[in-house]
Amino acid sequence: MALVNIHFLNLQSNYLFADIAKKVNAFKVMHPKADVISLGIGDVTQPLCPAVIEAMHKAVDEMATAKGFRGYGPEQGYDFLREAIVKNDFLPRGVRLSTDEIFINDGAKSDTGNFQELLHWDNFIGVTDPIYPVYIDSNVMIGRCGTYRDGHWTNVRYMPTTAENGFIPELPKGRPVDVIYLCYPNNPTGTVITKQELRRWVNYALKNDALILFDAAYQAYIQDPDIPHSIYEIRGARKCAVEFRSFSKTAGFTGVRCGYTVVPHEVSVATFEGERIPLHQLWLRRQTTKFNGTSYISQRAAEAIYSPEGRLQVQQTIDYYMQNARRMLTVLRDSGFECYGGENAPYIWMRTPNGMGSWQFFEALLYGTQVVCTPGVGFGPSGEGYVRFTAFSSHEKTEEALNRIEAWSK
Ligand SMILES: *Cc1c(COP(=O)(O)O)cnc(C)c1O
Q: Which of 215, 260, 321 to mutate for ligand 1's pocket (most ligand atoms within 8 Å of CB)?
């Protein structure tokens, strides 16, 4: 008899965005003529930049010749891309990595979800709350999170990040956490972490022999020069942290698929007998068994964003989205809403007015303005009473949505 992995049955209902789509579709069925604007799901809208398109065309043409054809590539990714990453993403920030510490992947969701399988099933995980749902759900799937009660998993330490603590989560008290997920700039709150705060987490991890899984998918949106882009800007992080990066939000690769994970040689975890096992060795073994690489065309596309033209063009698109973010902050605040984030990230985190629940406000906004936001509670219990808006829409649609919200709020 083929038995099910019962942990999958413990997952909470649908994926958040499937629930939202269902509600939006119900609205559209009732109001077929309505012009619905989505500032909900975190997907980009602007086309790939010319440098990337050119590199992709060139790669396709190479594949059409016997000489230029590529089959399976190296599992860890092509050297041309790994070298460009080390040289452009890390060296300018004073971080020295070797190319073999970079693992190219098909986007950060896969690796942020998969990495936990290198760890013993009863590690105690900690997350800042609210958070990108992939971290917890991927741990639920292998039975690491306990049972779900009152919006919480019993074996997960939630570290609230709310307006009340200035979006600075406290270090875990009591039972030490073994594995910590941090995401900065943060999805969904759009807030960032200072070097000083990040140093506290690295020191906690070193002191408690914990592992930090650091998701930097939005680092390209940081405007403030003092905010760290990589956890390796903190001394000691090479011993206790793995970092995930993605070209999805950086360069509009949500449909192209390419990202990478940094696993330094020094980062290790223990056996019960106290032996140290380097995670690099395990992740390499895992990837060579379960992953056959990212397409050559996608990797050439990613390489192109590091060319002088590519850098400029990618920056223009990021500036375009950040212009939306600034407009959103201005108009929403002028309309009397309490907003956070949006300064170093493409997300605005807004407190719902009059203590409304997240889903209640989501529906009121949808029916009142035909604008879609994301209910904050979908990202964790501390997200209740907030909603998330993304800056990834076009200027025109963002402006139209803001006009409607402004009129509606009066
Ligand atoms: C969008 C996003 C990612 C990246 O996903 P990809 O699989 O690279 O498209 C990773 N982490 C967070 C927090 C995100 O919001």
A: 215
Query: Tokens at residue 172, please?
Result: 């875990």
Q: Establish whether residue 114 lines the binding site of ligand 1, counting it when its CB lies within 6 angstroms of any ligand atom.
A: no
What is the mean predicted confidence (pLDDT) over 253-282?
A: 98
**Ligand 1 center–CA 116 separation, angstroms:** 16
Q: Tell me the C-alpha distance between 366 and 47, whole Å.
A: 27
pTM greater than 0.85 (yes/no)? yes
Q: Is the CB of 254 under 6 A from ligand 1?
A: yes
Q: Kindly state the average pLDDT of the residues 297-311.
A: 98
Please write the tens of the pLDDT for every residue from 110-135: 999 999 999 999 999 999 999 999 99
Give yes or no for a contact between 24 and 371, defined as CB atoms under 8 angstroms apart.
no
Helical spans, DSSP H, in 225-357: 237-240, 247-251, 279-290, 296-304, 308-334
Distance of CA 299 to the CA centre of its chain: 20
* DSSP secondary structure letter of residue 175: S
Rounded to the nearest angstrom, the distance between the alpha carbon of 107 and the centre of ligand 1 is: 7
Mean pLDDT of 172-184: 96
Q: 248 CB less than 6 Å from ligand 1?
A: yes
217 lines ligand 1 (CB under 6 A): yes
Q: What is the pLDDT of residue 14?
A: 66
Confidence of residue 136 (pLDDT cuts 50, 70, 90): very high
CB of 262 closer than 6 A to ligand 1? no
